[in-house]
Design goal:
Layout (H helix, E strand, L loop, with lengths): L6 E5 L12 H10 L7 E5 L2 H11 L5 E4 L17 H6 L4 E4 L2 H4 L5 H13 L3 E6 L3 H5 L3 H12 L9 E5 L13 H17 L8 E4 L7 H4 L7 E4 L6 H12 L1
Helix pairs in contact: 1-10
The structure holds phosphoenolpyruvate.
Phosphoenolpyruvate (PEP) binds next to β8.
Length: about 250
C-alpha cells in the first residue's frame, strides 16, 4: 500500500502571510534529500494571495501549487472579488480544489461546482474534487447516495476525467480530530473507485482521503490499501507536522 500512495495535498485554508513562504524551506529540503519521496506528489494549496510567492519559492523543485477555489466562468467580467481559472493558470499554478465542504456549507451547489470544474479543466488546471457527507447524512445511512449524487452532478458533461482527483472528505471529520473507522473508509474508497471506473468512465481513478489527518493518526490511515493519498488541512500549515505525516506514511 505505502508505495502506492502518491498525493499529499496541503490545504492551507485561510492561513498565512508573505513570510509564511519561508516555512516551505524545510519541506523543500526534505523532498530533495529523501529518496523515498521521489514518487510522491506534494501539492500546496495556499490562499490566493500566496499563490504567486509559493510558485516562485517552489520553482525548480518537484513540489506543485494549487488554488483553493475558482470562479465558474473563465471569461473576464464584473464579479468583484472573484478569481477565475484563467487567472490562476496564468500564474503557472497547476491544481485547484473545488467542491470543498466549507464552500458547500456557504451555499455552493453541485451545478456551480460543475461549472467550476468545466472551467478549470478548460484552462488546463487539474481538479481536486471534494465530496463528502455530513454527520446527519451519515447517521441516516445516506453516505453512498450523497457521494454518488455529488459525483454525478459535479461531473455532468465532463468527458475527460484524466485530470480529476477525487478527495473524499467526510464533513464531520474536517477539523474535528475524528477520522472514519478504517473498515468504513476502505469500503467507501472501494465503492467510489468501482463507481468511478464503471459508471463515470475514469480510467484509473485516484481517491484521496481528507479530514483531520495528523501525525497522530497517519499510522492508522496508511493501512488503507486503496487510497492514493491525503488532503491535509490544519496539520499541513506546520512543515514539521507535514514532514512527519509523510515520513510515517512510508515507514
Ligand atoms: C480540509 O479542509 O480539506 C481538511 C482536510 O482539513 P483538516 O485536515 O484540518 O481536517
Amino acid at each position: 500500500m505505502t508505495n502506492k500512495l502518491r498525493y499529499f495535498v496541503a490545504n492551507w485554508k485561510m492561513f498565512g502571510h508573505l513570510n509564511s513562504v519561508n516555512s516551505l524551506n524545510k519541506v523543500i529540503n526534505f523532498k530533495k534529500k529523501n529518496k523515498k519521496t521521489k514518487n510522491l506528489k506534494i501539492i500546496y494549496c495556499p490562499p490566493f494571495t500566496l499563490i504567486h510567492p509559493f510558485i516562485q519559492k517552489l520553482k525548480n523543485t518537484s513540489i506543485m501549487t494549487g488554488a483553493q477555489n475558482c470562479s465558474f466562468t473563465s471569461k473576464y467580467g464584473p464579479p468583484t472579488g472573484s478569481i477565475n481559472a484563467k487567472m490562476i493558470k496564468s500564474l503557472k499554478c497547476e491544481y485547484v480544489i473545488l467542491g470543498h465542504s466549507e464552500k458547500r456549507a456557504k451555499g455552493e451547489k453541485d451545478n456551480i461546482i460543475n461549472k467550476k470544474i468545466i472551467s478549470a479543466l478548460k484552462c488546463k488546471l487539474k481538479v481536486i474534487f471534494c465530496i463528502g457527507e455530513t454527520s446527519i447524512q451519515k447517521k441516516r445511512r445516506l453516505t453512498k447516495k450523497i457521494l454518488l449524487s455529488q459525483i454525478i452532478r459535479g461531473l455532468k458533461k465532463v468527458k475527460n476525467k484524466k485530470n480529476i482527483l477525487i478527495a473524499y472528505e467526510p464533513v464531520w471529520s474536517i477539523g474535528s480530530g475524528v477520522i472514519p473507522k478504517i473498515e468504513d473508509l476502505e469500503n467507501t474508497t472501494n465503492y467510489l473507485k468501482l463507481f468511478l471506473s464503471n459508471k463515470m468512465k475514469f480510467k484509473n481513478p485516484k481517491v484521496l482521503y481528507g479530514g483531520s489527518v495528523s501525525p497522530k493518526n497517519i499510522s492508522i490511515l496508511k493501512k488503507i490499501t486503496n487510497l492514493d493519498g491525503f488532503l491535509i488541512g490544519g496539520a499541513s500549515q506546520n512543515s514539521d507536522k507535514l514532514i512527519d505525516i509523510i515520513k510515517k506514511t512510508f515507514n
